[in-house]
């Protein structure tokens, strides 16, 4: 095996390793891409501060609320109202009702998605139950608040925004930390 | 160059090739390894084919008759995996092993020991995959595309073995691809310049690069499935911050170049056969090379045409629709060149030519249904129906598989030293041609009428078509037994083949005697 041959083999092997890494790099790249473009309907995973936005009373936006427990999630989960009309810039609160009809404690994680996808960049959450995992003892219920406003910069073509939550049972992956609403869980 | 050839020359001197099983276990000879790959592919073709027969048996009538739905799903999944990774890809690798060194005037592959390894790990990969079918819970049942969450949340306990076997298949392909590239780059005989290389060599060189680029991505995505399922990561689990649609992006980033991995070498084969039997030079050699390269590059930019219905934004669907249609252009160049090669040629119609001609026509039908699928709004109707099944079987069975069969007939005399039985070969061809169309053409119609793919039962109105399709399927399966008979007969004896075999054949492989001696081109040939 001559030198020319070994360098070629070396380069090709490097390409193999690089492409394996690229496969993994697609995971963060995908998130970054979706964050920037908002094409996936993903909203920010962190709360925004309630800045004094100028309320634009000339426009009305209909917000539709959809909430759905995932197949394996036994909770009852629904918004207080199905839809509301808001002015861009106005801060609103929407409560979601969660009820655990089983006899065991369950931890839930809600994952939001906004449609049309590109409106996600303009839907701001000041406070949301989806930022943390939610603990609910068997037979109990609770109200989970969402505080939000619509960015006045929302392009004119959007008049309705649908916010959908899917609620997952994450009891198995639950890690108690100070942000959770029940650090006593796991007794 | 000369250092390489003398180094390999030295093998030739202690040429006491061991006999029996040891010869095959330890062989580093490209012809032995090529034969093993080809035989392995043929065996896999029949195992995967048997599964297809189970599928068609169940679908012969509506209702559930023979197998339960879960086993049916295992059959569709393992059938797909075996045909893609066990039959088509190893068959092409086998042809590459046999022919590339002879076509470029090299004594062997550049990395003979690695060559032995890349073959011998393959049977184990498929053994593992097949064994899962007999384990509690059964084999993989989530489709060859193993979409999350089917393969993560909802899959059975043998998924780890599935992942392991895919890893082994990937390693084997990557090693094979490195070997092909190093051989072509470093071992060409003096005077064999890039633009003198036969197209089969060119297409394989480009295929090898595709393999190196995408097989690691496949390895990555199965590993993510593995860790999502067993080690609590959430790459594809929305509850943990992942995204199941991400799976499809990564998978198809591999998957679409993969379909070209299965067709580019076929283009090379057809470009070798058509000029031989038309007794003319290949029309537009350089444009063939550039078309192949542009198909390979474009194949990285079209993956989301498999995902139009996932709710992508409109501009993304438009982008992928246009890039996909763009691929039809270089593909069209190829079809044009083959037809132009035949134009006013002195054609004869031996079996390899018949299969090559059938390839050109039927592959084009598959390409056309592909263009239909690429129209985003239309795909909303076609997606996940039998129309897609018809599309990819036209390009893969009457495309890739027909090209492999054509190659086998074309080079069998070189491999065995005997002519195959032309009458039997023609019988095989006509039976295959008729049955393949009975089998796959009606699938277009049931697909357009709304029959979904990957189901063990269907609505009553599809009954007649499905019975028809199943009969076509059984006939196609039976026809392939003729092929085995032809091969065995040809290996055993028959009319002696000359070195050139075919009157119009040109190229280095036709300058060595038939059967090709165990070692060829120990001293590099002179290329004019
Ligand atoms: C002009 C060329 C081609 C075009 C425009 C094309 C287009 C497409 C499109 C749009 C789909 C997705 C359909 C859907 O799921 O709704 C598809 C599926 C598929 N194509 Fe092609 N294609 C072409 C050539 C090929 C070739 C050459 C092969 C392989 C040799 C191939 C193999 C496949 C396979 C295996 C699938 C189905 C994958 C699955 O879902 O299991 N295609 N094609
Ligand atoms: Cu594709």
From TrEMBL, chain A:
<dbReference type="Pfam" id="PF04442">
    <property type="entry name" value="CtaG_Cox11"/>
</dbReference>
<comment type="function">
    <text>Exerts its effect at some terminal stage of cytochrome c oxidase synthesis, probably by being involved in the insertion of the copper B into subunit I.</text>
</comment>
<dbReference type="InterPro" id="IPR023471">
    <property type="entry name" value="CtaG/Cox11_dom_sf"/>
</dbReference>
<protein>
    <recommendedName>
        <fullName>Cytochrome c oxidase assembly protein CtaG</fullName>
    </recommendedName>
</protein>
<keyword id="KW-1133">Transmembrane helix</keyword>
<dbReference type="InterPro" id="IPR007533">
    <property type="entry name" value="Cyt_c_oxidase_assmbl_CtaG"/>
</dbReference>
<keyword id="KW-0472">Membrane</keyword>
<feature type="transmembrane region" description="Helical">
    <location>
        <begin position="12"/>
        <end position="30"/>
    </location>
</feature>
<comment type="similarity">
    <text>Belongs to the COX11/CtaG family.</text>
</comment>
<keyword id="KW-0812">Transmembrane</keyword>
<keyword id="KW-0735">Signal-anchor</keyword>
<keyword id="KW-0186">Copper</keyword>
From TrEMBL, chain B:
<dbReference type="InterPro" id="IPR033944">
    <property type="entry name" value="Cyt_c_oxase_su1_dom"/>
</dbReference>
<keyword id="KW-1003">Cell membrane</keyword>
<keyword id="KW-0472">Membrane</keyword>
<feature type="domain" description="Cytochrome oxidase subunit I profile">
    <location>
        <begin position="24"/>
        <end position="528"/>
    </location>
</feature>
<comment type="similarity">
    <text>Belongs to the heme-copper respiratory oxidase family.</text>
</comment>
<dbReference type="InterPro" id="IPR000883">
    <property type="entry name" value="Cyt_C_Oxase_1"/>
</dbReference>
<keyword id="KW-0186">Copper</keyword>
<dbReference type="InterPro" id="IPR036927">
    <property type="entry name" value="Cyt_c_oxase-like_su1_sf"/>
</dbReference>
<feature type="transmembrane region" description="Helical">
    <location>
        <begin position="77"/>
        <end position="98"/>
    </location>
</feature>
<feature type="transmembrane region" description="Helical">
    <location>
        <begin position="424"/>
        <end position="445"/>
    </location>
</feature>
<keyword id="KW-0812">Transmembrane</keyword>
<feature type="transmembrane region" description="Helical">
    <location>
        <begin position="465"/>
        <end position="488"/>
    </location>
</feature>
<keyword id="KW-0349">Heme</keyword>
<keyword id="KW-1133">Transmembrane helix</keyword>
<feature type="transmembrane region" description="Helical">
    <location>
        <begin position="37"/>
        <end position="57"/>
    </location>
</feature>
<dbReference type="InterPro" id="IPR014241">
    <property type="entry name" value="Cyt_c_oxidase_su1_bac"/>
</dbReference>
<feature type="transmembrane region" description="Helical">
    <location>
        <begin position="159"/>
        <end position="187"/>
    </location>
</feature>
<feature type="transmembrane region" description="Helical">
    <location>
        <begin position="199"/>
        <end position="226"/>
    </location>
</feature>
<keyword id="KW-0249">Electron transport</keyword>
<dbReference type="Pfam" id="PF00115">
    <property type="entry name" value="COX1"/>
</dbReference>
<keyword id="KW-0813">Transport</keyword>
<dbReference type="InterPro" id="IPR023615">
    <property type="entry name" value="Cyt_c_Oxase_su1_BS"/>
</dbReference>
